[in-house]
Amino acid sequence: MFKKILIANRGEIALRVLRTCKEMGIKTVAVYSKADAESLHVKFADEAVCIGPAPSSESYLKMDRIIAAAEITNADAIHPGYGFLSENAKFSKLCEEHDIKFIGASAEMIDQMGDKANAKSTMIAAGVPCIPGSEGVITDFDTCKKIALETGYPVMLKASAGGGGKGMRAVWKEEDLKDAWDSARQESKAAFGNDDMYMEKLIEEPRHIEIQIVGDSFGKACHLSERDCSVQRRHQKLTEETPSPFMTDELRNAMGEAAIKAAEFIKYEGAGTVEFLVDKHRNFYFMEMNTRIQVEHPITEEVVDYDLIREQILVAAGVPISGKNYTPQLHSIECRINAEDPFNGFRPAPGKITSYHAPGGHGVRIDTHVYAGYMIPPNYDSMISKLIVTAQTREEAINKMKRALDEYVIEGVKTTIPFHRQLMDHPDYVAGNYTTKFMEEFEMK
Length: 445
Known about the structure:
The chain is an alpha+beta fold. Helix content is 32%, strand content 26%. It folds into 3 domains: 4-103, Rossmann fold, CATH 3.40.50; 132-201, ATP-grasp fold, A domain (Dna Ligase, domain 1, 2-Layer Sandwich); 207-440, ATP-grasp fold, B domain (D-amino Acid Aminotransferase, Chain A, domain 1), CATH 3.30.470.20. It has helices spanning 11-23, 40-44, 63-72, 89-97, 107-114, 116-126, 141-151, 177-192, 249-265, 297-304, 308-316, 394-407, 417-423, 427-430, and strands spanning 4-7, 27-33, 47-52, 77-79, 101-102, 155-159, 169-171, 197-201, 207-215, 221-233, 236-242, 270-278, 284-290, 331-338, 340-341, 347-348, 351-352, 355-357, 364-368, 375-376, 383-391, 409-411. It has an 8-stranded antiparallel sheet, with helices on both faces. A 5-stranded parallel sheet has the order 3-2-1-4-5. α2 (40-44) links the parallel β2 (27-33) and β3.
């Protein structure tokens, strides 16, 4: 087992990893930017190393500084959390070259699944259901036009190196294709330095349902059931739940088997997520694979009593998984609490938290790094906490979430707490009748 793990991240995920390390008797090293000097993960770690100024490009994305911090503290492993360098093949390889275990996917796996067009080709070869469309990168507009006609409108153009909705365009008719092709490539080039595009059939009334998997170094994988992430704004998840209110036993078995097939085909090692789009007829299609821990992993932990961070560390240390697949026995919902103003277009709202009171009680969990007096910097993602509730049924979980949101007090900055409170009363959400288009018609009151 590892003696010391450096946590190459910040905020709530850094604190989340640190806590499991402590429970496992593993020493921890925090790295931090100057903007995060007062963050809790810095205060609670056994050692802490400043790696640069506030901009992530000068700190959390500086591979050489993170490797140097690991070497001077004698850390034998690095946990990247999510975001930043968690799916960076170059960083994974750099850790390997410096004899530091990267607690995540290998460079080869990241390369194989990180490029979405390449991932789709791999999944077709693995026999996993994929959305009809191009089998790889589209090289020119004439080919794009031809594939669109073969696939049938509507279609979705996607950036091969994309994420967060960048470089995506829905096209409903042929005369709009050229403008969509040009603008999507331009946006993708600006965001990712890469304008490669691929195309998929646009799935109408889709749900975004993902399967949590874990694979070990012996080629074995298991799944820990699904999470429904369909409530999104601009392709950014706002709330998640498990089990999905749209799920059936038959669909769960089929999607779980497909996710395991995907993981074992590439001999995936670590915790990962296979993401699917599911249409209104419950046909499901591979969308992408995230080769890291997910923001929403706590709801899976709550319904199957399973520490995913601990399992990541064990797998990285060479321990085989049990191979057991899991079915949720409870219902869990997560609300992402962001420092944003939901009454003003979800505008980011960094600043100082003047007062903070967290809800409690049975079945309530909060993953956060903030406290009264904490200054939320403007340099990073706006998420400041995750409120997770767990109960026997979905109805009970919604009622528990309402109560917890009513108790949750964060003053000094605007947050998305009012949005989530209204969401919990929305009749379509309460009925489980929502798709990825839900937020297009949602209005704050």
